[in-house]
Protein backbone atom coordinates (compact mmCIF):
# COMPACT_ATOMS: atom_id res chain seq x y z
CA UNK A 1 0.00 0.00 0.00
CA UNK A 2 2.84 2.37 1.03
CA UNK A 3 4.82 1.32 -2.01
CA UNK A 4 1.88 2.08 -4.31
CA UNK A 5 1.47 5.48 -2.68
CA UNK A 6 5.15 6.27 -3.19
CA UNK A 7 4.98 5.25 -6.85
CA UNK A 8 1.97 7.47 -7.39
CA UNK A 9 3.71 10.34 -5.59
CA UNK A 10 6.87 10.11 -7.69
CA UNK A 11 4.83 9.68 -10.87
CA UNK A 12 2.85 12.81 -10.05
CA UNK A 13 6.06 14.70 -9.22
CA UNK A 14 7.69 13.55 -12.45
CA UNK A 15 4.70 14.66 -14.51
CA UNK A 16 4.23 17.97 -12.74
CA UNK A 17 7.65 19.46 -12.03
CA UNK A 18 9.02 19.66 -15.59
CA UNK A 19 5.90 21.42 -16.83
CA UNK A 20 6.09 23.96 -14.02
CA UNK A 21 9.73 24.69 -14.85
CA UNK A 22 9.02 25.01 -18.57
CA UNK A 23 6.16 27.44 -17.94
CA UNK A 24 8.35 29.87 -16.02
CA UNK A 25 10.83 31.50 -18.39
CA UNK A 26 12.60 34.64 -17.12
CA UNK A 27 12.20 37.81 -19.18
CA UNK A 28 14.34 40.93 -18.93
CA UNK A 29 14.63 44.14 -20.95
CA UNK A 30 16.62 47.37 -20.54
CA UNK A 31 16.28 50.76 -22.22
CA UNK A 32 18.43 53.86 -22.42
CA UNK A 33 16.28 56.76 -21.22
CA UNK A 34 18.55 59.18 -23.14
CA UNK A 35 18.92 61.30 -20.01
CA UNK A 36 21.93 59.54 -18.51
CA UNK A 37 19.86 56.78 -16.91
CA UNK A 38 19.03 53.18 -17.77
CA UNK A 39 15.63 51.57 -17.13
CA UNK A 40 15.30 47.79 -16.75
CA UNK A 41 12.24 45.61 -16.20
CA UNK A 42 11.91 41.91 -15.53
CA UNK A 43 9.36 39.22 -15.07
CA UNK A 44 8.39 35.71 -16.06
CA UNK A 45 6.55 34.27 -19.02
CA UNK A 46 3.67 33.15 -16.81
CA UNK A 47 3.11 36.77 -15.79
CA UNK A 48 4.47 36.33 -12.27
CA UNK A 49 6.38 39.12 -10.55
CA UNK A 50 10.16 39.53 -10.48
CA UNK A 51 10.10 41.92 -7.51
CA UNK A 52 13.22 41.58 -5.38
CA UNK A 53 15.32 39.81 -8.05
CA UNK A 54 18.94 41.10 -7.86
CA UNK A 55 20.20 43.18 -10.78
CA UNK A 56 23.97 43.27 -11.05
CA UNK A 57 25.73 45.90 -13.16
CA UNK A 58 29.29 45.04 -14.17
CA UNK A 59 31.98 46.91 -16.12
CA UNK A 60 33.86 45.71 -19.19
CA UNK A 61 36.25 43.68 -17.02
CA UNK A 62 33.40 41.92 -15.25
CA UNK A 63 33.84 43.86 -12.01
CA UNK A 64 30.64 44.63 -10.17
CA UNK A 65 29.77 48.33 -10.35
CA UNK A 66 26.52 48.13 -8.43
CA UNK A 67 24.02 45.62 -7.12
CA UNK A 68 20.36 46.61 -7.19
CA UNK A 69 17.04 44.79 -7.00
CA UNK A 70 13.82 45.01 -8.96
CA UNK A 71 11.14 47.09 -7.27
CA UNK A 72 7.63 45.86 -6.45
CA UNK A 73 6.79 46.88 -10.04
CA UNK A 74 9.57 44.55 -11.24
CA UNK A 75 11.63 47.45 -12.58
CA UNK A 76 14.70 49.51 -11.66
CA UNK A 77 16.44 52.66 -12.88
CA UNK A 78 20.09 53.58 -12.43
CA UNK A 79 22.72 55.99 -13.74
CA UNK A 80 24.26 54.86 -17.02
CA UNK A 81 27.83 53.65 -16.35
CA UNK A 82 30.73 55.15 -18.29
CA UNK A 83 32.32 52.85 -20.89
CA UNK A 84 31.46 49.18 -21.40
CA UNK A 85 28.99 47.60 -19.03
CA UNK A 86 26.49 44.74 -18.72
CA UNK A 87 23.32 44.21 -16.70
CA UNK A 88 22.54 40.82 -15.18
CA UNK A 89 19.09 39.62 -14.13
CA UNK A 90 20.19 37.26 -11.37
CA UNK A 91 17.11 35.10 -10.98
CA UNK A 92 19.02 32.01 -9.84
CA UNK A 93 20.23 28.96 -11.72
CA UNK A 94 18.60 28.72 -15.13
CA UNK A 95 16.98 32.10 -14.59
CA UNK A 96 19.82 34.47 -15.44
CA UNK A 97 19.81 36.92 -18.34
CA UNK A 98 22.79 39.11 -19.23
CA UNK A 99 22.30 42.19 -21.42
CA UNK A 100 25.46 43.95 -22.70
CA UNK A 101 25.29 47.75 -22.61
CA UNK A 102 25.91 47.76 -26.38
CA UNK A 103 22.47 46.18 -26.81
CA UNK A 104 20.63 48.71 -24.68
CA UNK A 105 18.96 51.32 -26.87
CA UNK A 106 16.55 54.22 -26.46
CA UNK B 1 -42.38 38.30 -70.28
CA UNK B 2 -39.10 40.12 -70.93
CA UNK B 3 -39.63 42.20 -67.77
CA UNK B 4 -40.32 39.06 -65.77
CA UNK B 5 -37.11 37.46 -66.98
CA UNK B 6 -35.16 40.60 -66.10
CA UNK B 7 -36.62 40.63 -62.60
CA UNK B 8 -35.87 36.93 -62.19
CA UNK B 9 -32.29 37.56 -63.31
CA UNK B 10 -31.87 40.42 -60.87
CA UNK B 11 -33.34 38.30 -58.08
CA UNK B 12 -30.87 35.51 -58.87
CA UNK B 13 -28.00 37.96 -58.75
CA UNK B 14 -29.20 39.25 -55.42
CA UNK B 15 -29.64 35.81 -53.93
CA UNK B 16 -26.24 34.59 -55.05
CA UNK B 17 -24.35 37.70 -53.95
CA UNK B 18 -21.70 36.94 -51.36
CA UNK B 19 -22.66 37.55 -47.75
CA UNK B 20 -20.49 40.63 -47.30
CA UNK B 21 -19.75 41.68 -43.77
CA UNK B 22 -18.45 45.01 -42.57
CA UNK B 23 -15.37 44.74 -40.38
CA UNK B 24 -13.59 47.62 -38.71
CA UNK B 25 -9.92 46.81 -39.14
CA UNK B 26 -7.26 47.76 -36.62
CA UNK B 27 -4.19 46.44 -38.37
CA UNK B 28 -0.51 46.15 -37.71
CA UNK B 29 1.71 43.59 -39.46
CA UNK B 30 2.90 41.72 -36.36
CA UNK B 31 1.19 41.34 -33.00
CA UNK B 32 3.79 39.20 -31.17
CA UNK B 33 6.84 41.43 -30.88
CA UNK B 34 10.13 40.39 -29.32
CA UNK B 35 10.98 44.02 -28.67
CA UNK B 36 8.96 47.19 -28.37
CA UNK B 37 9.44 50.24 -30.56
CA UNK B 38 7.68 52.64 -32.87
CA UNK B 39 4.54 51.12 -34.33
CA UNK B 40 2.31 51.88 -37.28
CA UNK B 41 -1.36 50.90 -37.33
CA UNK B 42 -4.02 51.27 -39.99
CA UNK B 43 -7.69 51.85 -39.21
CA UNK B 44 -9.81 50.78 -42.18
CA UNK B 45 -13.53 49.97 -42.47
CA UNK B 46 -13.89 47.28 -45.13
CA UNK B 47 -14.78 43.76 -46.20
CA UNK B 48 -11.58 41.89 -45.29
CA UNK B 49 -12.25 38.72 -47.26
CA UNK B 50 -12.68 40.59 -50.52
CA UNK B 51 -10.36 43.49 -49.70
CA UNK B 52 -12.71 45.93 -51.32
CA UNK B 53 -15.62 48.23 -50.47
CA UNK B 54 -13.63 50.71 -48.40
CA UNK B 55 -16.14 52.69 -46.38
CA UNK B 56 -15.42 56.26 -45.35
CA UNK B 57 -14.49 56.62 -41.68
CA UNK B 58 -15.21 59.81 -39.79
CA UNK B 59 -12.83 61.12 -37.09
CA UNK B 60 -12.88 58.42 -34.43
CA UNK B 61 -14.65 58.77 -31.10
CA UNK B 62 -12.02 56.94 -29.08
CA UNK B 63 -8.67 55.31 -29.74
CA UNK B 64 -6.60 54.15 -26.80
CA UNK B 65 -4.43 51.34 -25.49
CA UNK B 66 -4.51 49.56 -22.13
CA UNK B 67 -1.08 48.22 -21.21
CA UNK B 68 -0.28 45.75 -18.46
CA UNK B 69 3.07 44.15 -17.67
CA UNK B 70 2.70 40.91 -15.76
CA UNK B 71 -0.38 39.53 -14.08
CA UNK B 72 0.28 41.60 -10.98
CA UNK B 73 0.99 44.80 -12.90
CA UNK B 74 -1.42 47.71 -12.89
CA UNK B 75 -3.26 48.28 -16.17
CA UNK B 76 -2.47 51.71 -17.60
CA UNK B 77 -4.58 53.43 -20.24
CA UNK B 78 -3.11 55.86 -22.79
CA UNK B 79 -5.11 57.97 -25.22
CA UNK B 80 -3.75 57.62 -28.76
CA UNK B 81 -5.95 60.00 -30.74
CA UNK B 82 -3.11 62.53 -31.05
CA UNK B 83 -1.19 60.06 -33.24
CA UNK B 84 -3.96 59.65 -35.82
CA UNK B 85 -3.92 61.16 -39.27
CA UNK B 86 -6.46 60.78 -42.03
CA UNK B 87 -5.43 58.75 -45.08
CA UNK B 88 -7.06 57.41 -48.21
CA UNK B 89 -7.18 53.62 -48.42
CA UNK B 90 -7.41 51.80 -51.73
CA UNK B 91 -9.18 48.45 -52.09
CA UNK B 92 -8.53 45.70 -54.62
CA UNK B 93 -11.37 47.12 -56.70
CA UNK B 94 -9.39 50.42 -56.86
CA UNK B 95 -12.21 52.14 -54.99
CA UNK B 96 -10.97 54.42 -52.21
CA UNK B 97 -12.26 55.43 -48.82
CA UNK B 98 -11.26 57.57 -45.87
CA UNK B 99 -9.27 55.70 -43.24
CA UNK B 100 -6.76 56.53 -40.51
CA UNK B 101 -3.10 55.94 -39.86
CA UNK B 102 -1.66 55.78 -36.34
CA UNK B 103 2.07 56.39 -35.98
CA UNK B 104 2.96 55.52 -32.41
CA UNK B 105 6.35 56.63 -31.06
CA UNK B 106 8.62 54.07 -29.42
CA UNK B 107 7.78 55.27 -25.90
CA UNK B 108 4.14 54.10 -26.26
CA UNK B 109 4.98 50.45 -26.98
CA UNK B 110 8.34 50.11 -25.21
CA UNK B 111 7.78 47.99 -22.10
CA UNK B 112 7.14 44.28 -22.13
CA UNK B 113 3.58 43.07 -21.64
CA UNK B 114 0.19 43.18 -23.34
CA UNK B 115 -1.17 46.18 -25.21
CA UNK B 116 -4.93 46.03 -25.77
CA UNK B 117 -5.75 48.55 -28.50
CA UNK B 118 -9.33 49.80 -28.55
CA UNK B 119 -11.00 51.71 -31.36
CA UNK B 120 -14.44 53.25 -31.03
CA UNK B 121 -15.30 54.67 -34.45
CA UNK B 122 -17.91 57.30 -35.12
CA UNK B 123 -21.14 55.48 -36.05
CA UNK B 124 -21.25 54.66 -39.78
CA UNK B 125 -24.50 55.35 -41.61
CA UNK B 126 -25.44 52.34 -43.71
CA UNK B 127 -27.80 53.63 -46.38
CA UNK B 128 -29.05 50.17 -47.30
CA UNK B 129 -30.21 49.57 -43.74
CA UNK B 130 -31.16 53.20 -43.05
CA UNK B 131 -29.32 52.88 -39.78
CA UNK B 132 -25.98 53.24 -38.06
CA UNK B 133 -23.28 50.68 -37.21
CA UNK B 134 -20.66 51.18 -34.54
CA UNK B 135 -18.04 48.48 -34.09
CA UNK B 136 -16.05 48.43 -30.84
CA UNK B 137 -12.79 47.01 -32.13
CA UNK B 138 -9.95 45.40 -30.18
CA UNK B 139 -6.51 44.15 -31.25
CA UNK B 140 -3.91 42.87 -28.81
CA UNK B 141 -0.14 43.21 -29.19
CA UNK B 142 2.42 41.59 -26.90
CA UNK B 143 5.99 42.68 -26.34
CA UNK B 144 8.65 40.32 -25.04
CA UNK B 145 6.38 37.38 -24.16
CA UNK B 146 5.29 38.70 -20.79
CA UNK B 147 1.50 38.37 -20.47
CA UNK B 148 -0.70 41.00 -18.90
CA UNK B 149 -4.32 41.96 -19.52
CA UNK B 150 -5.04 40.10 -22.78
CA UNK B 151 -8.05 38.34 -21.24
CA UNK B 152 -9.42 41.17 -19.11
CA UNK B 153 -12.82 42.61 -20.08
CA UNK B 154 -12.85 46.37 -20.58
CA UNK B 155 -16.56 46.82 -19.94
CA UNK B 156 -17.32 48.03 -23.48
CA UNK B 157 -20.94 48.05 -24.70
CA UNK B 158 -19.96 45.33 -27.18
CA UNK B 159 -16.80 43.32 -26.65
CA UNK B 160 -15.14 40.00 -27.39
CA UNK B 161 -13.01 38.85 -24.47
CA UNK B 162 -10.36 36.32 -25.55
CA UNK B 163 -9.78 33.02 -23.78
CA UNK B 164 -6.66 32.37 -25.89
CA UNK B 165 -3.91 34.89 -26.38
CA UNK B 166 -4.94 36.65 -29.61
CA UNK B 167 -1.29 37.04 -30.66
CA UNK B 168 -0.15 33.44 -30.05
CA UNK B 169 -2.08 31.00 -32.22
CA UNK B 170 -0.65 28.23 -34.39
CA UNK B 171 -2.23 27.32 -37.69
CA UNK B 172 -4.59 24.43 -37.05
CA UNK B 173 -5.39 25.53 -33.51
CA UNK B 174 -8.62 26.86 -32.12
CA UNK B 175 -9.61 30.17 -30.58
CA UNK B 176 -12.19 30.65 -27.86
CA UNK B 177 -13.74 33.93 -26.79
CA UNK B 178 -16.65 35.29 -24.82
CA UNK B 179 -19.11 37.84 -26.15
CA UNK B 180 -19.78 40.51 -23.55
CA UNK B 181 -21.78 43.69 -23.17
CA UNK B 182 -20.81 46.04 -20.35
CA UNK B 183 -18.89 43.21 -18.67
CA UNK B 184 -21.75 40.67 -18.83
CA UNK B 185 -21.79 37.63 -21.14
CA UNK B 186 -24.20 37.78 -24.08
CA UNK B 187 -25.73 34.31 -24.55
CA UNK B 188 -26.73 32.57 -27.79
CA UNK B 189 -25.64 35.32 -30.17
CA UNK B 190 -24.30 34.84 -33.68
CA UNK B 191 -20.57 35.39 -34.24
CA UNK B 192 -19.12 36.11 -37.68
CA UNK B 193 -15.60 35.21 -38.76
CA UNK B 194 -13.70 36.50 -41.78
CA UNK B 195 -10.15 35.94 -42.98
CA UNK B 196 -8.09 38.93 -44.12
CA UNK B 197 -7.74 37.46 -47.57
CA UNK B 198 -5.50 40.10 -49.12
CA UNK B 199 -2.04 41.55 -48.56
CA UNK B 200 -1.66 44.93 -46.93
CA UNK B 201 0.77 47.50 -48.31
CA UNK B 202 1.47 49.72 -45.31
CA UNK B 203 3.41 52.31 -47.33
CA UNK B 204 0.87 52.59 -50.14
CA UNK B 205 -2.16 52.47 -47.81
CA UNK B 206 -3.76 49.79 -49.95
CA UNK B 207 -4.82 46.19 -50.23
CA UNK B 208 -2.64 44.61 -52.91
CA UNK B 209 -2.09 41.36 -54.78
CA UNK B 210 -4.58 38.61 -55.44
CA UNK B 211 -6.97 37.12 -52.88
CA UNK B 212 -5.17 34.30 -51.09
CA UNK B 213 -8.04 31.83 -51.12
CA UNK B 214 -11.16 31.44 -53.21
CA UNK B 215 -14.32 30.61 -51.33
CA UNK B 216 -16.29 27.74 -52.89
CA UNK B 217 -19.53 29.24 -51.58
CA UNK B 218 -20.56 32.58 -50.03
CA UNK B 219 -20.98 30.91 -46.63
CA UNK B 220 -17.20 30.39 -46.55
CA UNK B 221 -16.50 34.11 -46.92
CA UNK B 222 -18.20 35.21 -43.74
CA UNK B 223 -18.52 32.15 -41.54
CA UNK B 224 -20.91 31.95 -38.63
CA UNK B 225 -20.89 30.24 -35.28
CA UNK B 226 -23.30 30.59 -32.39
CA UNK B 227 -22.13 31.50 -28.90
CA UNK B 228 -23.44 29.20 -26.17
CA UNK B 229 -25.57 30.20 -23.18
CA UNK B 230 -22.48 31.66 -21.47
CA UNK B 231 -21.58 33.76 -24.51
CA UNK B 232 -18.63 31.49 -25.31
CA UNK B 233 -17.68 30.45 -28.83
CA UNK B 234 -14.83 28.53 -30.42
CA UNK B 235 -13.49 28.77 -33.95
CA UNK B 236 -10.86 26.82 -35.86
CA UNK B 237 -7.82 28.56 -37.33
CA UNK B 238 -6.96 26.78 -40.57
CA UNK B 239 -4.69 29.39 -42.16
CA UNK B 240 -1.94 31.76 -41.05
CA UNK B 241 -2.67 35.49 -41.13
CA UNK B 242 -5.19 37.78 -39.53
CA UNK B 243 -8.73 36.66 -38.69
CA UNK B 244 -11.48 39.10 -37.84
CA UNK B 245 -14.22 38.06 -35.43
CA UNK B 246 -17.33 40.22 -35.30
CA UNK B 247 -20.50 40.00 -33.27
CA UNK B 248 -23.33 41.93 -34.95
CA UNK B 249 -26.20 43.58 -33.15
CA UNK B 250 -24.97 43.22 -29.57
CA UNK B 251 -26.76 46.44 -28.58
CA UNK B 252 -29.60 48.14 -30.44
CA UNK B 253 -30.30 51.79 -29.72
CA UNK B 254 -31.12 55.07 -31.44
CA UNK B 255 -28.69 57.56 -32.93
CA UNK B 256 -29.63 60.78 -34.76
CA UNK B 257 -33.22 59.60 -35.07
CA UNK B 258 -32.21 56.30 -36.68
CA UNK B 259 -31.63 52.80 -35.42
CA UNK B 260 -28.05 52.00 -34.45
CA UNK B 261 -26.42 48.67 -33.73
CA UNK B 262 -23.30 48.40 -31.60
CA UNK B 263 -21.09 45.48 -32.53
CA UNK B 264 -17.90 43.85 -31.23
CA UNK B 265 -14.82 43.11 -33.33
CA UNK B 266 -11.62 41.34 -32.29
CA UNK B 267 -8.63 40.65 -34.55
CA UNK B 268 -6.41 37.65 -33.91
CA UNK B 269 -3.22 36.59 -35.66
CA UNK B 270 -2.38 33.03 -36.65
CA UNK B 271 1.17 31.82 -37.29
CA UNK B 272 2.47 28.78 -39.18
CA UNK B 273 4.61 26.34 -37.20
CA UNK B 274 8.12 26.82 -38.69
Class by SSE composition of chain B: mainly beta
Element string of chain A (H = helix, E = strand): HEEEEEEE
Mean pLDDT value of chain B: 93
Query: Largest interface, counted with CB-CB under 8 A?
Result: A-B, 16 and 16 residues
CATH fold label of chain B: Immunoglobulin-like
Write out the CATH superfamily name of chain A.
Answer: Macroglobulin (MG2) domain
The count of domains of chain A is 1
CATH superfamily (homologous) name of chain B: Immunoglobulins
CATH class of chain B: Mainly Beta
Largest sheet of chain B: 11 strands, mixed
Q: How much β-strand is present in the residues of chain B?
A: over 45%
Polypeptide structure, described:
The complex is a heterodimer of chains A (106) and B (274). With 106 residues, chain A is an alpha+beta fold. Chain A has one domain: Immunoglobulin-like, CATH 2.60.40. Chain A contains 1 helix and 7 strands. The termini of chain A are far apart. About 15% of the residues of chain A have low confidence. Chain B has 274 residues and is mostly beta strands. Chain B has one domain: Immunoglobulins (Immunoglobulin-like). Chain B has 1 helix and 22 strands. In chain B, the strands form 4 sheets. In chain B, strands 2, 5, 6, 9, 10, 11, 13, 16, 19, 21 and 22 form an 11-stranded mixed beta sheet that branches. In chain B, strands 1, 3, 4, 7 and 8 form a 5-stranded antiparallel beta sheet that branches. In chain B, strands 12, 14, 15 and 20 form a 4-stranded antiparallel beta sheet that branches. In chain B, strand 14 and strand 15 form a beta hairpin. The longest helix of chain B has 15 residues. The N terminus of chain B is likely disordered. Chains A and B meet through strand 1 and strand 2 of A and loops of B.
